[in-house]
Amino acid sequence: MAAVEIYIWDVERGDAILVKGPERNAVIDLGQHANGFSPSRHIHTQHGIDSVDYLVLTHPDEDHIEDLPEFSSYFSPEVIARRDEADGYIRRRKNDLYPDRSRYQSVTESYLTLTDTYDQRATFSPSEPSWNGSLTFTHHILSLEEAGTTPIDELSEGETVNMNNISILTVLEYGSFKLVTAGDLEQEALETLLEQSSVRDDLRDTNVLVAPHHGRESSYTPKLFHHMTPELVAISDAKAGSTNASQKYSAQATGATVSRRSGTTTDRNVVTTRQDGVIYLGIDDEEYRIRID
Amino acid sequence: MVSAPDPTLDTKIGGGPEFQTVVPTAQTNQHGLLNGLQDSSPTTSTSEQQPQQPSLGEVIGGAIVLIGATWLAGEILGEIFGSRADLTAVEQQILASA
Question: What residue ranges do the domains of chain B occupy?
Answer without folding.
Answer: 56-94
